Input
Amino acid sequence: MKRKEIALFMIVGTGINSDSNESGYKLLAQKLYSTINKIYPNYVVFFASDKSKHTIKYIEELFERDHDEFIEGEDYQIANIEAIDDFNACFEVFESKIWEMDYQSGDKKYEIIMDYTSGTKTMSAAMACCGMFYSKDLISVGGDRATGEVSAGTEIINYQNLYKIYDKFALMRIRNYFNAHRFMSCVDILGYIVDSSIHKDSLMHLCKAYYAWDNMEFEHAFNHLKEVDTNLFELSQLRGDLKKNIKALGTIVNARSLNLKNCYILASIINNSIRKADEYKYDDAIARLYRSFELIAQIKLSNYNIKSSDIDVSVLLENNVSKDFIDTLEKTLEDGKIRIGLTMDFLLLNELGDDLGKYYVENENKIKNMTQKRNNSILAHGLDSQSRDDFDDFLEVVLDLARKLDKDMNKFLKETEFAKFDIVLKMNQ
Output
């Protein structure tokens, strides 16, 4: 692999004194020259105002004194900074040169080192922020400051180790990605964190738990979430929601009551659909709503000891289902079993005198219109795309039925809502 060449970015001040006299230019030139010799770059980019460009000619003279050449265009270039006290203007000049060296330099690749020692305080701050933003090596020049300034000949190059800052940025990204349900992106970022004071293990389990839950892998989700230390400071915002979520998953995995377990699963699927809709994935969201709709009927039928995948006629007779309806069902007999789908599930519930069946019959035209749209979806049997309005209409019906299914459905829905970090910026208030 071809070794990258080193490009040194240097801010050029206007000398040591506010008067910026020749002796000041020369003294600053000596300091910059010393840094260049210590770094030994292949190329230098000086960031200078019109006034501070005078310093660079003295750097050329120092190279000549040491029987070397320092030629503009070959060994260095000057990037002009006009507004030396405008942070944004300085940042943009530094950023443009990073892009030029990183992405527009063809086959020649540079390792960029940024020296933010000289220049105005604004220039230094902008360079430090720009270097940190683009993960470039930052250096400052230290040494003997007995006279207030670093004395010539005592210069020491200090490489700034920013791993703690990068890790803090990583945690901010993780919080945002977590709220956006990009859980495996969080796991990837956590892999790069090196600060041992950050509780990576709990954060890993947290992200893997919600990734598994988002994919309806309830046992995996529960096992991961149990390993999360909810007392950690990093998770203080989530503590209440985590406890509710652990309870919900524990019920799904361990509940003795099949009805209770199924109601929590139903609530999970409904919340899953809402998350997909919030991501503008309406076809995906409606596909999940359709499954919720179907599951509601199946749960209710199970309360009558009826399985829609294998109808027991004797149970129907015990529940006074009409002979005509049973005859209709028996027409679907295949491989010795009567299997019925969503529509017949609800019609059977109506035959049983159940409120869910009555609701379906009363809203049959509206529901058929919605299910037809779902059937025409590109994720079902057609090529159409669904809209937010389509989702909202379907969600209203599903929620109505879910609440009729169980009086505690609002509680189940609340406990299966995914935890979220509270991320508030002043600009968003």
